[in-house]
Design a protein that fits this description.
Strand content of chain B: under 5%
Largest interface: A-B, 27 and 19 residues
Oligomer: heterodimer
Structural class of chain B: mainly alpha
Shape of chain A: globular
Number of strands of chain A: 10
Largest sheet of chain A: 6 strands, mixed
Strand content of chain A: 15-25%
Distance between the termini of chain A: 23 Å
Shape of chain B: flat
Number of helices of chain B: 11
Radius of gyration of chain B: 25 Å
Strand order of the largest sheet of chain A: 6-7-8-3-9-10
Distance between the termini of chain B: 59 Å
């Protein structure tokens, strides 16, 4: 594997806390710094706060305290800042969330036209490039309901890439897929990782982590239990809890 | 006599159950029963049917020229009031539903107040209030008062339909739009409403049909709509049953055509996805 160099810190999360209205504490004094081009895989049992962490990074969830700074922009109450961050951070969801009334290419084109104000032709060209990159250019005119789960998820990745984000968030993107479709999605993600995209990936696909991740974070009850390289996790994790969890998912 | 094959009987029965003939026969039976009932009723009343006088009130030919009768004129007024109110009530309904779903406390309160006021008072009272109290103050015409009352009334109900449609769109759609950096306006315009409209078309059609029928109430403020024209003719001719039935049939014609148009629209939208 070729060595890529990590840049300065693009995401700085400082002591964030998030409590849901029902009293569940999803994140407790959670801090983390992520460098440019770094691929961070977040693992942990369900309810450990991994998805909440991801969703806080692009403002889908409000944090109660602490601070998040992405590419120098603080995620605060300032609407301009929020909008800027949403443009810089792409997100892919477990349930794809494609727009069902639009074709694959329209899904990818929409935000380019509305948010980046690109011309129709320019946006269409970018869309076709991206659909080619995720390997489904021939499905450009299909509606999401006509595509398989793996194909839908690849369209969703292309859609998130269309804004040329600096950071990509992946929230259990292969969990809803049939086993034979998981790899086609992971392959696209691996390509992205090798191209130097900064990625935060919530997943239990340890094969993916082993191949492309720079760091693994193990979370439980809203806290980081342990973090380190994949090799570290596979060989000798310090915490008993981590060992138990890994033995379950490996 | 040989016993018939039970399998055959069953097959025949299931065939009959699925065939449209059964429905047609049921329908004819109901109509026959109704006709018989009405015939009996009017016979007892000693009512003298004079259907031949009715067509003249709808339209006639004088010297080969088509002349619209008072009922047709009334229908035009009804259609005009309905059409304007329909557009206004849907616009009002959409705006109210967006207000109710907004984060602003004042907007939510305003929408809620409007909704409860309108929903919990009779349309007739609202119509009188607008015509006798508001109209002189605001200096608006009789037609405008009627349109205002109908739009406000139907708009309140339409807003609940819009709201239900918007809320029914999966959370993931909002989140996807949000993460793509779409503004709230763009989100509604391109993602939420196009999907919601497919779901709310049937209940909105109901609302439109209600509007057509409720528009008959404007006859109470002396607007010469279909109902008012009918009442005027009845007062002169005593053709009570003939005219009311005719008027009902004309309303039916309007509402059924409306349903058909919406059905075609629904099918088109379904093909589009």
């Amino acid at each position: 594997m070729q060595e890529k160099s990590l840049g300065d810190h693009i995401i700085i999360v400082n002591k964030i806390t998030k409590t849901f209205p029902n009293g569940v504490r999803a994140l407790q004094d959670f801090s983390s710094k992520i460098r440019r081009s770094e691929v961070v895989v977040v693992i942990g049992p369900s309810g450990s706060g991994k998805s909440t962490f991801l969703r806080c990074l692009n403002g889908l969830e409000e944090i109660d305290s602490g601070s998040i700074v992405i590419d120098g922009i603080p995620l605060d109450d300032n609407k301009t800042n929020r909008m800027a961050i949403r443009k810089e951070v792409g997100m892919v969801f477990q349930s794809f969330n494609l727009f069902p009334h639009m074709t694959a290419s329209e899904n990818v084109t929409l935000a380019q036209r509305l948010v980046r104000k690109k011309s129709k032709q320019e946006a269409m060209e970018t869309s076709m490039d991206l659909l080619g990159k995720v390997g489904i250019v021939e499905k450009a005119d299909s509606y999401p309901s006509q595509l398989s789960g793996g194909q839908q998820q690849r369209v969703a990745i292309a859609r998130a890439l269309a804004l040329m984000p600096k950071v990509m968030l992946f929230d259990e993107v292969t969990s809803a897929l049939d086993p034979e479709m998981i790899n086609e999605v992971l392959d696209v993600m691996k390509t992205l990782a090798r191209e130097g995209m900064t990625m935060v990936v919530v997943t239990h696909e340890m094969g993916f982590a082993r191949e492309v991740s720079d760091r693994v974070i193990f979370m439980e009850e809203g806290r980081i239990v342990e973090e380190g390289s994949v090799q570290y996790f596979f060989t000798n994790p310090r915490e008993e809890r981590t060992k138990r969890f890994l033995s379950q998912i490996l | 006599m040989t016993t018939p094959d039970p399998n055959l009987l069953e097959k025949a029965w299931s065939f009959l159950k699925r065939s449209p003939f059964v429905d047609v026969i049921k329908f004819l039976l109901v109509i026959a029963a109704l006709t018989w009932l009405m015939a009996r009723g009017t016979e007892r009343l000693g009512y003298n049917w004079q259907w031949y006088r009715v067509p003249h009130f709808i339209f006639s030919f004088e010297n080969g020229d088509f002349v619209a009768g008072p009922l047709l004129h009334g229908l035009m007024v009804t259609l005009r009031i309905t059409a304007v109110s329909l557009v206004l009530s849907f616009a009002l309904g959409l705006a109210t539903s967006l207000f109710r779903l907004s984060n602003a406390f004042v907007a939510r309160g305003l929408a809620r107040g409007y909704l409860e006021c309108i929903r919990n008072t009779p349309l007739l009272v609202q119509l009188f209030f607008i015509y006798f109290v508001l109209a002189p103050v605001l200096d608006i015409s009789r037609f405008a008062s009627a349109v205002l009352a109908l739009s406000l009334f139907e708009g309140a109900y339409a807003s609940e339909i819009f709201r239900a449609g918007i809320v029914s769109i999966h959370r993931g759609q909002w989140e996807a739009a949000h993460s793509l950096g779409l503004t709230t306006f763009h989100n509604y315009r391109y993602i939420i409403l196009p999907q919601a409209i497919r779901r709310i078309l049937p209940p909105l059609t109901n609302q439109a049909i209600s509007l057509v029928k409720d528009s008959a109430l404007v006859s109470t403020i002396a607007i010469y709509d279909l109902t008012m024209q009918g009442r005027a003719i009845i007062a002169e001719t005593y053709l009570t049953f003939e005219l009311w039935f005719t008027i009902a049939a004309i309303y039916l014609l309007v509402t059924v055509s409306l349903s058909l148009v919406v059905n075609t629209m629904e099918n088109r939208l379904r093909v589009a996805t």
